[in-house]
Structure formats: C-alpha cells, structure tokens
Design brief:
Keywords: Membrane, Transmembrane, Transmembrane helix, Transport. It is found in: Membrane. Its main location: membrane. Helix content is 76%, strand content 0%. With 371 residues, it is mostly helical. It has a domain of 209 residues: Growth Hormone, Chain: A, CATH 1.20.1250. Helix 2 packs antiparallel against helix 10 and helix 17 runs antiparallel to helix 18. The radius of gyration is 24 Å and the shape is globular. It starts with 12 loop residues before the first helix and ends with a helix.
Length: 371
C-alpha cells in the first residue's frame, strides 16, 4: 500500500530510494510468506506434502495469470496508485483470517500415533528433537543436487521474460503485445493445471519425487532446444505449433521439477525429516529466488552475445550437465528406503496400553522407554 504513495514522492533520488525500499519490503515479505508456507505444510501433513504443495502452486499460477490483467484494468480505472491500494486492502484481511485459523505451533504427531495414544499421555510419548541446522543439510549431496535442480527449474520462465517477446517478434509469430502475452500465458496455464496432478504422481508410493523431478528437468531441456530452435536441430524455420509445444514443456516441466522438491529433500534427511523441515523451507525458497535472479541475467546477456538460439542451447546444456550430476550422486550414494513415518506410534503402542491400565507405573515405564 505504501507503494501507492510513490506518486507523491519528489522526482530523482527520493523517488528511486522510495521505490527501491518498497520493492525490498515486498521481497522480504514474499520470502517470509513462502518459506513459512513450505514449513507449515511439512508440519501439518508431511506424508502428503507433494499433493498439498501442488494445490498451493495452483494459487501461484493463478496469481501470475490474474495479476497482470487485473493490474492493467485497475491502472486504467484509477491510475498508478489504485492497483497497489486494492491489492493491499485484500492482503490485510486475508492475513488476519490466516492468522486466526492456523493451529498453534506444536511438534507434529503422526496419524497412526494419534489414533493409538490417549490424549492425556501424548506429551509423554512425543520426544521433540532439536531442529536440523542448515549446514547439516548442505553436507548432504542429495540435498545439494536437488537445491540446484530447484534453481535451474525456476530459471526457465525467468530466462524467457526478457527474451521471448523479441524472439517471437523476429520470427513473425507474435506482432502485438497481446499476442506476446498469450504466448507467456501458455506456460502459466500449463503450470497451473498440471501442479495438482504432479502432486499426486510424485507421492512416494507412486512415481516418487526424484523421478518426477528428473523428468521435469528433461521436459525443460527439450523446451529450450525447441524454442530456440537450437542450431543443433538444424532447423531453418519454426512455426507456431513448435513454439506452443516448447512453452507447454516449460510449464509442465517446471511443475514437475518444483512441486516434489520438499518431499525429496525430506526423504534424503530420512528419520530427521521432521526436524529438518524448518531448514528445508528457506533452502528451497533461496534456490527459487536464485533461479529467478540468474534466469534473466543469462537470458539477456547470452542472447545479446551469442543470439537467442545458442543461449537456449546453453541453458539446455546446463540442464543436461545437472541431470548427469544427479545420476552420479544417486549411483554413488543411493538413498535407502525409509520406513513409514508412523513407526513412533507403533513402537510405543504397548507402552500406551500400560499407561491406560496403571497411570503411575505406566508413565514411569513410558519415560524409561523413551529415554
């Protein structure tokens, strides 16, 4: 809402400082919100995290689709300030409702454990552990390769933002701003619609998060080769069907390479997954932000020096190289299958029975068992 006051700030450096400060505030706020979102979902239901993150990513896609036209309509209706005032007025009550509806922070309890143990003795059975530090996460090679995958997977759309319009204009595929906007919407719509489906496919009992991430990176790799088109394909011309196919691959590939990230890293943390969720969330969001930062830099600089087709080939080469790194890490240090997270409730079920039969002696045996 303070951004709306930029029109009242004097021109020159005061205006620049004001706008820069408001953008930094927006960035910090987005980082707080998105990082907390990942951590909250991991706390509430880690067993179905890919599905719920897929649902949340629908909101992200809808925001990208609705934001630009809504901002344009409000700008035409009331000038520069109106879009910021309206969106700020919507965020304030939404934040209040969210704050009041969220459960209190507590150590998560698995569903099986919740069914087995009595409420009165639950505090005796749960043994909270200290959160996993970020440096411990970064010491795990499986975590590192997936964090880099998150960066690369989130850089494709950012790569296209400063370059796709001019490229489509040069090819004669889009000659108006509306047509260029329609091309961008292909990727966003594909991303939005595929996220919940990807969330279901990436569940551990189905394809699993790692396989879905790898396939998503492959889709994005082919997207870069087709949208260039890469000189390696030796194509003289490119039509609209190939452009649309490439943009569809970007959208679906981004959904596949980003939605299962949290679950994959939690699998790499094995029995410390719950304690690591607080550190995993900022790691993922940092990877996303880094991808959004380097994508336009590579797209603009590489396209200016070597041309758009070779710049796309460079991005495809980076994805191929990282796919090879993931394969090497998976082969050298394979992850062992992790048992179901409900093991705590199963192990302590017999102790729970004794607590119900004899509270005093059962509580003592329960504490000794946990110790």
């Amino acid at each position: 809402m303070l951004f709306a006051a930029a029109t009242f700030v004097p021109e020159g450096w005061p205006f620049a400082v004001w706008c820069l400060s408001m953008r930094i505030a927006q960035g910090v706020g987005a980082a707080l919100e998105e990082t907390a979102m990942y951590a909250i979902i991991a706390e509430l239901d880690a067993e179905n995290i890919t599905f719920y993150l897929g649902i949340c990513e629908i909101s992200t896609g809808l925001g990208y689709m609705i934001g630009p036209p809504l901002g344009g309509i409000l700008f035409m209706a009331g000038g520069f300030s109106l879009p910021f005032v309206c969106v700020g007025a919507l965020i304030a009550p939404a934040a209040l409702i969210f704050y009041r509806s969220m459960p209190n922070d507590a150590h998560p309890v698995s569903k099986d454990q919740e069914r087995v143990e009595p409420v009165a003795t639950r505090s005796l059975l749960v043994n909270p552990q200290e959160p996993v530090a970020m440096r411990s996460l970064l010491a795990n090679p499986h975590v590192i390769v997936i964090a880099v995958a998150a960066m690369l997977g989130n850089s494709d759309y950012a790569f296209l933002e400063p370059t796709l319009g001019e490229h489509a204009l040069n090819l004669g595929l889009a000659k108006t701003p509306d047509a260029i906007g329609a091309l961008f919407s292909v990727t966003i719509v594909a991303y939005t619609l595929s996220c919940p489906v990807i969330g279901l496919l990436a569940k551990r009992e189905r394809m699993g998060p790692r396989a879905v991430i790898v396939i998503g990176l492959v889709f994005q790799l082919f997207g870069f080769l087709l949208v260039g088109p890469s000189p390696l394909l030796q194509q003289e011309q490119m039509g609209m069907p190939q452009m649309v196919l490439a943009l569809l691959l970007f959208g679906v590939g981004a959904a596949m390479s980003m939605t299962p990230l949290m679950d994959d890293i939690m699998l790499s943390c094995r029995r410390h997954a719950e304690e690591a969720s607080v550190a995993i969330a900022p790691l993922i969001m940092s990877s996303f932000a880094l991808g959004q930062m380097i994508g336009p830099l590579i797209g603009a600089s590489a396209s200016g020096r070597m041309g758009f087709p070779w710049a796309c080939t460079l991005m495809a080469s980076l994805l191929l190289a990282h796919l090879a790194v993931i394969a090497i890490v998976s082969a050298v240090r394979p992850r062992k299958a992790m048992k179901n997270r409900a093991y705590v409730g199963v192990e302590l079920a017999s102790v729970t029975v004794s607590v119900v039969a004899s509270p005093e002696s059962g509580a003592a045996r329960c504490l000794s068992h946990v110790a």
